[in-house]
Amino acid sequence: MKGMRAILLLGAAAGAACAQCDFSSVAALAQGAVDGQNVQTPVTGFELLLLRNGEPVFHRAFGSWTIGRAAQADSATKTLSGALIVSLTESSAQPFSLDTRLADLIPAFDGVTEAITVRQSFAHMSGLRDSIAVSSQTMTLQQAAQSIANRPSPLENTPGTVFVYGGTSMHAAGAAAEIAGAAPWNTLFAQRISGPMGMSSTTFTLTTPTNPRIAGGARSTAEDFGAFMEMLRRGGLHGNVRVLQETSVQAMFTRQTPVGVTIGDTPLDSPFTDGADYGVGVWLDERGPDGELLGALAAGARGFSSWIDFDEGLVGVFATDLTLSGNIQPLLYMIRAAAQDAVRACRCDPIDFNGDGLSPDNRDLEDFLGVFGGGACSTGSCGDIDFNNDGLAPDNDDIEAFFRVFGGGAC
Questions:
Q1: What's the whole-number mean pLDDT along residues 9-26?
Q2: How many angstroms separate the CA atoms of 26 and 11, rounded?
Q3: How many CA atoms does the CB half-sphere of 88 hold within 13 Å?
Q4: How far is residue 89's CA from residue 98's CA, in Å, rounded to a whole number?
Q5: Dihedral of CA 60/61/67/73: which sign?
Q6: CB 117, CB 100: distance < 8 Å
Q7: Out of 58, 64, 120, 162, which residue is the most buried by the measure of CB atoms under 10 Å away?
Q8: Are 106 and 112 in contact (CB under 8 A)?
Q9: Mind listing the pLDDT tens digit for each residue in 52-66?
Q10: Backbone phi, then psi, for 344, in 5-degree steps?
Q11: Residue 410 has pLDDT above 60, yes or no
């Protein structure tokens, strides 16, 4: 499948979770992290949650952690904030879009900072220097934005030219969002994101209620964050509630940084993309051979991480604040690969296609090919022709999967 729209539609249309899969390799990797395997330093505790088409298929706590314990999400907050930003592009008290300039809402951004946009701010392309205002205990978010704009030398790079990972630009854009939305950030987040989704354990706890750290201040649980990422995987739907428009989610999962952009600083070491493949507040960290998006990642400095693997309908959450992102990043890719392998091995329907209690036998093969071609089932109780349960039927992948399983292979 090509394109983000196709992936989102597939996610929205996907059926129930796969049959019981063998996640023992995932469990072994997770326990190994506690024991110091595949990490530089043992991870003393964490919760691991895997959702397949929205249904939990693996959920365990390891080490000193307990299920349901909240953790500081740190920079995984950026994805929560990105969702609120695109929500405001759908409707707001004042005109607001990704191409809105900060100066349009905060006049202090003038001169060399006048051209900075919300899009650049949420894709680490603003050129703004880091500022301690983001962690001020005394300023409001509006005052912090004024401080960021009024520095004698506010820019590190020309806006739009260099990718430098950080949070100052998102903080300034958050102040602009408050003005556009005519309400404090926390109120907007509760009204538009956490409230409609019932994310009662997700709040901005840093730095203060009046100066929430837009790029790193949220605290959340595996269950809350998993539901949030599943909403994004489904193109903005949480159950039957539309939280975001599909076009807004598409914007989040569209690369906002130029291919080949100069990388000044990045914490991501993905084996699949460069270190600057970034959407609106979210890493786009795995692509297929034709550039199609296969994976996205929200990750925090102390290990809180959540990902989407679009091709398998998987959402994962590694909830902790007891380690470092760099310590577990290679491990997370190993866990993701193991989870995908487990799902792929068990997602196909039973090989007894015609339900006669005999399998594998030639009648199953004959009935499958007959029904695939539009014919009738010999027993009247055949399965559906979406044999590999990828939401697409009829297609040749179902035939290939059937023959593999019929011959004793994996789905």
A1: 61
A2: 23
A3: 33
A4: 7
A5: negative
A6: yes
A7: 120
A8: no
A9: 999 999 999 999 999
A10: -65, -30
A11: yes
Is the separation of the CB atoms in 334 and 26 below 8 Å? Answer: no
Answer yes or no: are the C-beta atoms of 113 and 148 closer than 8 Å: no
Pairing mode, strands 305-309 and 45-52: unpaired
Question: Scanning the structure block, which residue is given the tokens 């600057």?
Answer: 276
Residue 17 has pLDDT above 50, yes or no: no
Q: Which residue shows structure tokens 């960290």?
A: 285
**What's the confidence (pLDDT) of residue 15?**
37
Given this model, what pLDDT does residue 1 score? 38
Handedness of CA 163, 136, 70, 43 (dihedral sign): positive
Domains within the chain, CATH numbers bracketed: 4-71+219-346 (3.40.710.10), 362-406 (no CATH)
Residues in the chain: 411
Q: Strands (DSSP E) along 4-125, which ranges? A: 45-52, 55-63, 71-72
d(CA 261, CA 366): 54
Tokens of 192: 């538009």
- Tell the residue number behind the tokens 């990797």, with chain if given: 29
pLDDT, tens only, 129-160: 999 999 999 999 999 999 999 999 999 999 99
Please classify residue 398 by burial: count the beta carbons closer than 10 Å to its beta carbon, then call 0-12 exposed, 13-18 middle and 19+ buried: buried
Token pair recorded at residue 43: 């991870």
Please state, in angstroms and rounded to a whole number, the distance separating the CA atoms of residues 313 and 311: 6
Of 144-148, 246-250, 276-280, 363-367, the least confident: 363-367
Average pLDDT, the chain: 93
Beta carbons of 345 and 312 less than 8 angstroms apart: no
Task: Return the structure tokens found at 94.
Answer: 């004042």
Amino acid type, 277: D
Residue 16's pLDDT band (cuts 50, 70, 90): very low
Q: Is the pLDDT of residue 12 over 70?
A: no
Please answer whether residues 206 and 217 qualify as being in contact, where contact means their C-beta atoms are separated by less than 8 angstroms: yes
**Whose structure tokens read 């990105």?**
82
CA 125, 131, 134, 138 torsion: positive or negative?
negative
